[in-house]
Automatic annotation (TrEMBL):
It holds the Pfam family Cys_Met_Meta_PP. Its cofactor is pyridoxal 5'-phosphate. Belongs to the trans-sulfuration enzymes family. Gene3D superfamilies: Aspartate Aminotransferase, domain 1, Type I PLP-dependent aspartate aminotransferase-like (Major domain). Coiled coil: none annotated. It is an enzyme of class 4 (lyase). This is Cystathionine gamma-lyase.
Length: 384
């Protein structure tokens, strides 16, 4: 089997043809010529399929489940479109689902919608013991994020998959933070791997994208049918840009992970910084489990500053890091996460996404911003 970088470069790319472009351009078409029986047509109408989607889906399937012929992926116009497609296509009134209580902040909104349709929803914090306790014979679907967003807690995918399957439930893993090069949930026993491709998969901050990957063709077909029936389709240009970005995924993942570890270590040495979380740190509470199931630990580091004002001064003083709400891109971003009001985090909690800048420059920028934030607070204290 080829290496990660080789696989990323060639994922979903067709065999070369004389005088043809190495990567086909996007196909813009609302409909396709359709003689004869539509049931055998590879493409008929733009809401049902598009060759540019097909290439991207082949690439994602190759990354999430390399070498598995039955693996399939379905792409969506955003991570939440992929998330809701799974939840609403596979759950019925009366079904029981377990969702993380500390996951992505729009999950509670999805929970409200599910409950409105008669689905019973339980929540549990990320971590095997709490999530295992929520799984019983009546559960239909278990949803986990590992590492979780934004707290970076980790759960044991294999252990949860075994528990869910023993009770007839499906396990779905949000793999956004890890990426398919950092972690392969399907190989660890998960039934579905879901991600916001907006983040590291595309990596350039210019495309909204989501996907669902499965080894069971029936599960993929159910999610694909939901996409067709609801019209939650991605544009061909966005699909093409995302596919282009995958070629550099391994380079970005490796560099960002190495820099994130350096950043986490630097932050741990600062007295004003507390609660540094990064699964790649040997001291991190989730490191032991993460080291068993992850090959790369991601680009996100979280930490807490003394209070809201301190965090805001820190963010304003950064020069290489933008104050933005996404993560996974080539440019570093950070934000005070509590400003959204949906996460149970301290007011000074910061989620930092490490880009591909030189590690030394990024660490220096963080130190300078921390110094500036501290100087301002010291000056204010002396003035009073």
């Amino acid at each position: 089997m080829v290496g990660e970088g080789t696989r990323a470069v060639g994922a979903g790319v067709p065999e070369g043809e004389a005088y043809a472009a190495p990567v086909p351009g996007p196909t813009f078409a609302a409909h396709f010529h359709l003689p004869g029986d539509p049931a055998v047509a590879p493409y008929a109408y733009g809401r049902q399929g598009n060759p540019t989607w097909t290439a991207l889906e082949a690439a994602v399937a190759e990354l999430e489940a390399p070498g598995e012929a039955d693996a399939a992926a379905v792409v969506f116009p955003s991570g939440m479109a992929a998330t809701t497609a799974v939840l609403f296509s596979l759950l019925r009134p009366g079904d029981v689902a377990v969702l993380p209580s500390d996951g992505y902040q729009l999950l509670p909104r999805a929970r409200e919608r599910l409950e409105g349709f008669g689905v019973v929803v339980r929540t549990a914090p990320t971590g095997a013991d709490a999530q295992l306790a929520a799984i019983d014979e009546g559960v239909r679907l278990v949803w986990v994020e590992t590492p979780s967003n934004p707290g970076l807690d980790v759960c044991d995918i294999r252990r949860l998959a075994e528990a869910a399957h023993a009770r007839g439930a499906l396990l779905v893993v949000d793999n956004t933070l890890a990426t398919p090069l950092g972690q392969r949930p399907l190989a660890l026993g998960a039934d579905l791997s879901v991600a916001s491709g907006t983040k590291a998969l595309n990596g350039h901050g210019d495309v909204l994208l989501g996907y669902v990957a499965a080894r069971d063709p029936a599960l993929a077909a159910a999610v694909r049918a939901w996409r067709t029936e609801t019209g939650a389709i991605i544009g061909p240009m966005e699909a093409w840009l995302a596919h282009r970005g995958i070629a550099t995924l391994q380079l970005r993942v490796e560099r960002q992970g190495a820099t994130a570890l350096a950043v986490a270590r630097a932050l741990r040495a600062r007295p004003e910084v507390s609660g540094v979380r990064y699964p790649g740190l040997p001291e991190d509470p989730g490191h032991e489990v993460a080291a068993r199931q992850m090959r790369h630990f991601g680009c996100v580091v979280s930490f807490t500053l003394p209070d809201r004002g301190y965090a805001e001064r820190f963010l304003a003083a950064l020069r290489l890091v933008s104050d933005a709400t996404s993560f996974g891109g080539v440019r570093s971003t950070a934000e005070r996460r509590a400003r959204w009001g949906g996460d149970e985090v301290p007011e000074g909690f910061v989620r930092l996404s490490v880009g591909i800048e030189d590690a030394e420059d990024l660490v220096a920028d963080l130190h300078a911003a921390l110094d500036a934030a501290g100087d301002v607070s010291s000056g204010a204290a002396r003035a009073t």
